[in-house]
Design brief:
By secondary structure, the protein is an alpha+beta fold. The chain contains 5 helices and 14 strands.
Length: about 325
């Protein structure tokens, strides 16, 4: 009897342990599993210039670096506008140089010659008037002759004054207002030329960040609206896990907490840290608990950053988080 007892006791103990495990598993709460997905930073490459897409230098899956040329847009209208503005700029520069250069030497010499002629004419008119006056006093010539000589003398005097003013104007050069206007016209055309040149430079679209080309939305020959994204870039080095968590589970995923997430696509676990928690919009976040009692629960967006770079991690992959009940 003692031997049978010794044999039955371990068997009974094993049976009791097995039954206890079955009851424990049947009545214990299973772990809570949350499913999220991997998101990555995306960049839209567009142009300020509308036109026709001439060339696309990348395709989906291409790896590009910063400042690499992605596509080119043809804009004949801007090129024609640049030609017009360059012509206006040439005119403005020429006028400004003419104003800043002052009066030409030939024009000053001509004004001085006219002044000297006026001086000589005035001297002759004065001498003639003195002679006629002397003869008129002697009664040799009529009074009419004296008046004519006096008038010619006054006209010569006024002509000399006018020639002197013209000579001074030629020697002084343009007024300050003319110089200011010429400089302003030159600055305006230069600014327009630089603006159009900058717009033409924007017809060559370069990548402002490195990454992988995730999509090319247009093909060569198609019209490109202003600001329309032609190429989409994804930076796989800036990826994170995104979960939609009901607020009754929110206390289990506080900011700064670390979790081991399962990535089925990579068949491995990756360590993540909670980096951001934010509420979602009202239109999609309310969820009733129990009809007739309790309260409505909201959904929060929880972002988790990997602690280390994960090779092969791509946007759209599923990630699983298990929370103990």
């Amino acid at each position: 009897m003692s031997k049978r007892t010794l044999i039955l006791l371990p068997v009974l103990a094993a049976i009791i342990v097995a039954i206890s495990l079955v009851f424990w598993r049947s009545y214990s709460s299973p772990p809570i599993q949350l499913q999220g997905q991997i998101e990555a930073r995306q960049y839209m490459v567009s142009s300020k210039i509308p036109g026709r897409l001439a060339e696309v230098h990348v395709r989906r899956g291409s790896v590009v670096t910063a400042d690499e040329l992605l596509f080119r847009i043809d804009s004949p209208e801007l090129e024609a506008k640049l030609t017009q503005i360059e012509a206006l700029d040439t005119i403005s520069r020429s006028l400004a140089q003419a104003v800043e250069g002052g009066t030409r030497d030939e024009k000053i010499a001509a004004a001085r010659s006219e002044f000297e002629k006026a001086q000589a004419a005035e001297a002759l008119a004065r001498t003639t008037y003195d002679r006629v006056r002397s003869l008129a006093e002697q009664g040799v010539v009529a009074r009419q002759r004296l008046d004519e000589a006096y008038t010619f003398w006054q006209i010569a005097q006024k002509t000399r004054v006018t020639a002197a003013e013209i000579l001074q104007l030629a020697e002084t050069g343009p007024r300050d207002e003319a110089r200011t206007a010429s400089r302003a016209g030159e600055a305006a055309t230069t600014s327009l030329r630089n603006e159009v040149a900058e717009l033409l430079d924007d017809t060559l679209a370069h990548a402002h960040h490195g990454g992988v080309v995730s999509n090319v939305l247009l093909s060569p020959g198609e019209l490109v609206p202003q600001g329309f994204p032609v190429v989409m870039l994804t930076d796989l080095n800036d990826a994170w896990a995104l979960f939609n968590v009901r607020e009754d589970f929110l206390e289990r995923v506080p900011e700064g907490a670390e979790f081991d997430l399962q990535v089925p696509a990579l068949n491995r676990q990756v360590r993540f840290r909670v980096s951001h928690v934010a509420v979602l919009g009202d239109f999609a976040t309310w969820r009733a608990t129990v009809p007739g009692r309790g309260f409505d629960m909201r959904t929060f967006e929880v972002e988790m950053q990997p602690l280390e770079p994960v090779p092969g991690l791509r946007a759209g992959m599923s990630v699983l988080l298990e929370l103990q009940p």
